[in-house]
């Protein structure tokens, strides 16, 4: 299996190069040459498979055995999911006859990104160790310096994915004092010598700008071989397809009738999680609909209403008589905070202006819409799809928007439904589910999904069952959960939510370097100092240095 860019070109990459490259040089995202189909006996043969067994089956359809043998793949997958606390890895919980929750937060940082990043870290290490073994004769050793900015969530999952990996250093920048105490502690209490936290005096945007400047600095980039672990990495999408299969089998084991229609409802930001479901569906998993749930950063919800993929920032007034609002009145109770066009919500991991992985879906939609001579070679059709996507993305860049043809919107609607949810509705849902017959406490991201599930269910045929993906443990977003349940007398945060792993976390040793100004030169100095050397960890909660 080879991979190519959504924006065309003749470049074909191996899985290894796809994973190590991340973003294609022409700005596109890599997608597989074709979507493999499930073996004809998958329903019976895979029925009792574990998460690890299913990972091996599904992943090996996308990775040539010459690149990673089945035995090597199994070892990588086993190692990746050993760090999870639940024997099912991603267990399915029943809320009521029509609604199930797929818990994706049993990894080391209590959020769904662990599912992908635990595997990605091991893949990086596997490739680098193998390359270095081959190059031993010439004495050249490849290293990777992963650099990223975080407002909290992704940073800790990346750190836990890459801690203690051979030939890799990781530098994560966060805005000092602007990350929730639990998330800051999750990142900075990791004391492996290859992990470096930089607390930058500035905002999250400052951190992001510094990271962009580092990647744009050719000299620096070449010297340190910078790498990214962001959500466009193909391996992350691939790892996430597995829980769609596992939950399908777990649901079959629980529902009385075998012919239910399954809807997956996915709290969505960068479109990575729900895109994995799209691949599972295209491979042959019987999914009736994929439901995209957004917060008030609703570029996707608006796309499925109008066919316009359009950035709306604070300077763009909402059109009068806004037809993009869902009928069920999703207007925010109060004006949401706006920074750089992104609205700050109670579900911050979904606060985005554009959804980077959406480009992959656009490619498939463009491909379907290409009108060609039926005898034309598939390559012709593919290259037309690449040109179309390239054109669309150029428009998004220059005009901030693109309007796709009606036929494209219609085909997007065959597989997906999309809805947006306000903060007030999110809080209402957390409260309602806590007080429901099956009392269950969701984090605010999951609550966005559950809100949409309830809304969509009103129009569902009786045979439909919904699986809502739960993307974070409620203890990670204590503020929203506590606010939602402040009037519930039966609720006690420490007793009902706080996991043992979080207790005492705030008092643990910290591994963090203070960066006194949002200055790229200061950050470079830290990277140069530590890239190949261990960092110093101090005894008390003080930082290990500052620049
Ligand atoms: C990243 C994240 C999401 C959004 O996932 P995408 O793949 O970016 O759509 C939702 N919830 C939580 C808790 C996350 O960390």
UniProtKB/TrEMBL annotation:
The family database entries (Pfam families) matched by this protein are listed as: PALP, THR4_C, Thr_synth_N
Q: List this protein's GO terms for biological process.
A: threonine biosynthetic process
Q: Which residues carry this modification: N6-(pyridoxal phosphate)lysine?
A: 113
> EC?
4.2.3.1
Q: Cofactors per UniProt?
A: pyridoxal 5'-phosphate
Cleavable signal peptide = none
Q: Could you identify this protein by its name?
A: threonine synthase
Annotated pathway:
Amino-acid biosynthesis; L-threonine biosynthesis; L-threonine from L-aspartate: step 5/5
Enzyme class, UniProt record, top EC level:
lyase
**Boundaries of each Tryptophan synthase beta chain-like PALP domain copy?**
94-323
Q: Which organism is it from?
A: Steccherinum ochraceum
CDD domains referenced in this protein's UniProt entry, alphabetically = Thr-synth_2
* UniProt keyword list: Amino-acid biosynthesis, Lyase, Pyridoxal phosphate, Threonine biosynthesis
Q: Segment Disordered: which positions?
A: 315-338
